[in-house]
Design brief:
373 residues, Rossmann fold
């Protein structure tokens, strides 16, 4: 359709020396100049509608006589149909097509009913080349056409009656030929060949030795991961990165240390990294176990500052200052630190006491027997 539109536009863009009178016949015109964009895109419709309108409006200036033929007049664009000068209206049964035909021919609705009763080859004609009023005309049969055109069905081929029996009996001898016998089956294998060969002897390790080796491997793996987490936690500015970036960096270091597989998932890594960032390795084993037990129900995003506060309270030292909490929490905003302490206090994880002079002290429930300055 786009090629047809470009061809029509090229007829107008041709140089003047190539202007010759010509008939431009467009069959199924409702496809090239549709009233609405349905089966084709809007850009294609605009291109073809512009070409058809140009042909019907300005074609006579180029010696081009446009002829449009359609069986669905209602689907044809109004500006294309209205530019035609002469009309031949054939039989149609659709009310919308008859209404459009009545509008073009200037007929009333009652007169348009004549279109429904037209016979084959009969048309209502109107135009300066035919008549000023709609008249009934009859189109005669086609005088020229394809020479091999057939008006009806071809007759069945005629076969001689005497040869019908021969078709059934001539090839019977060939069909009854004995088929060649199938090849003999392969010989059965000997019973000795079915017995598998003995497998080579190998050293059998005891379950105790296998368990000890697996335990040693798991212990070395856990120690290597703990070393990587501790080294990452001691790097300056590492806590300001997102959790996904930290996890990717941890996996890269594990691969560089030849730790295969997935060492731990994202949630376990966040808790392990929070524990390493809080610096709990400076506590003794009973105190560290007590602090970790208190932090089991704390969310991963606030676990590191909570453990730092709990470790300071367990040591009997002053609570971490805002800079230490900001480093562990991964922020440089004092307002976020204040909101963090308010959040921990609302959850019942810490107790904030305001002191005279603007200072404050933090207490962790479960560590009351250790004083905090």
């Amino acid at each position: 359709i786009r090629c047809a539109a470009q061809f029509i536009n090229a007829l107008f863009d041709a140089p003047r020396e190539f202007w010759f009178p010509a008939l431009v016949v467009v069959d199924e015109a409702q496809m090239f100049a549709p009233s609405v964009a349905g089966e084709i895109g809007e850009d294609t419709r605009r291109l073809t509608l512009s070409a058809m309108t140009n042909l019907m409006c300005r074609g006579r200036k180029r010696g081009l006589a446009g002829i449009v033929a359609t069986q669905r007049l209602a689907k044809l664009a109004k500006n294309v149909a209205a530019e035609a000068s002469n009309f031949l209206m054939g039989r149609t049964f659709l009310d919308i097509d008859m209404q459009r035909a009545a509008d073009l021919l200037g007929m009333e609705r009652r007169q348009a009913e004549r279109i429904r009763d037209l016979e084959r080859g009969h048309f209502l004609a109107l135009g300066p080349a035919i008549s000023r009023r709609p008249v009934a005309v009859k189109i005669g049969p086609v005088q020229t056409g394809h020479k091999v055109r057939a008006e009806g069905l071809m007759p069945l081929p005629q076969a001689p009656s005497g040869g019908m029996e021969a078709l059934l009996t001539d090839s019977l001898a060939a069909d009854v030929q004995a088929a060649s016998p199938p090849p003999p089956p392969p010989p059965a294998p000997r019973p000795a060949d079915l017995v598998p060969a003995p497998a080579p002897a190998r050293a059998v390790s005891s379950p105790a030795s296998e368990g000890s080796s697996q335990a040693a491997t798991s212990g070395a793996r856990e120690e290597a991961m703990a070393t990587i987490l501790s080294a990452m936690a001691q790097e300056e500015g590492i806590t300001f990165q997102s959790a996904s970036q930290l996890y990717q960096a941890f996996l890269m270091r594990c691969r560089s240390e030849r730790i295969g597989g997935v060492p731990m998932d994202m949630n376990v890594f966040r808790r392990r990294f929070a524990i390493a960032s809080a610096g709990l390795e400076r506590l003794d084993d009973p105190t560290r176990a007590r602090v970790l037990a208190l932090g089991e129900q704390v969310d991963e995003d606030v676990l590191a500052p909570y453990l730092a506060i709990a470790a300071a309270c367990a040591e009997g030292k002053s609570v971490p200052d805002d800079e230490e909490l900001a480093r562990v929490y991964g922020t440089s905003s004092p307002g976020r630190i204040r909101r963090l302490l308010d959040h921990l206090e609302k959850m019942g994880l810490i107790v904030v006491r305001e002191e005279f002079g603007g200072g404050r002290s933090l207490l962790v429930p479960g560590l009351e027997n250790i004083p905090a300055e």
